[in-house]
Amino acid sequence: MSKIYKPKPTDSQISIHRMRDVDNAEALVPGMEAVFFAASSTQSFENDAARIAFRERWLGRFLHHDPQWVYVALKDVPSGPDQRPNVVGYLIGALDDPAEAQRFADLGYFQTFKAHTKDFPAQLHVNLAEDVRGQGQGSRLVAAFISDAKKHGIPGVHVVTGEGARNVGFYNRLGFKEMERADWNDHTIVFLGCRM
Ligand SMILES: CC(C)(COP(=O)(O)OP(=O)(O)OC[C@H]1O[C@@H](n2cnc3c(N)ncnc32)[C@H](O)[C@@H]1OP(=O)(O)O)[C@@H](O)C(=O)NCCC(=O)NCCS
């Protein structure tokens, strides 16, 4: 019998929100952390300090410095202040050129990609819980960010991901194209840019 491809139905209970528009936005953070650590390629840490530094590098600094560029995918929006929000995905971003911004100086690859960060200064990082992937929620998060970032006259947005990562196809379909690759921490990373 031939296999019939059935895409997962879109979960109509999931909605996309800009964090700054959510009441009691701080209550979203534990759910974002859970999605972040579950989706991360690093799953074990030498100690608590290493875990905290990792969280700060890839999530925390965006929450502190760029809270206006945080979006969440929520399943079943809380009906009152006592109900915990069920965060199933998030996008964090920034608009300024990371090769020029002091707060990204620890990410040496931005100097390597400096020729491209001028044209594609905005960056985004998007992650979903495993059981809601492949339903278009990631595309909705990216679209929400790009639509708002465009209003600030930003020429382009980029992501940096691993060579051969499955998410490359996702970004390509959204219009991101490979601009350059580089060796970083024993693997090859790619800079994908998308004009606004
Ligand atoms: C990448 C991701 C944000 C895309 O969101 P999504 O809602 O699943 O994507 P869409 O339904 O809009 O599009 C489907 C595409 O998403 C990507 N995708 C789906 N499931 C995935 C998974 N488990 N891991 C990585 N990418 C996945 C694939 O590119 C898929 O297309 P494909 O089936 O042709 O390979 C989401 O899948 C995810 O969080 N993946 C794991 C973490 C990750 O890779 N984050 C990006 C870091 S740069």
Proper CATH architecture: 3-Layer(aba) Sandwich
Identify the CATH class: Alpha Beta
Structural class: alpha+beta
Outline:
globular
- Helix fraction bin: 25-40%
Order of helices and strands: EHHEEHHEHEHEE
Low-confidence stretches: 1-7
Q: What bound compounds does this protein have?
A: coenzyme A
What do the pLDDT scores average to? Answer: 92
The fourth-level CATH homologous superfamily is Gcn5-related N-acetyltransferase (GNAT)
Instruction: Please count the beta strands (DSSP E, at least 2 residues each).
Output: 7
Strand order of the largest sheet: 1-2-3-4-5-7-6
Q: What gap, in angstroms, lies between the N and C termini?
A: 45 Å
In the residues, how many domains can be counted?
1
Total of DSSP H or I helical runs spanning 4+ residues: 6
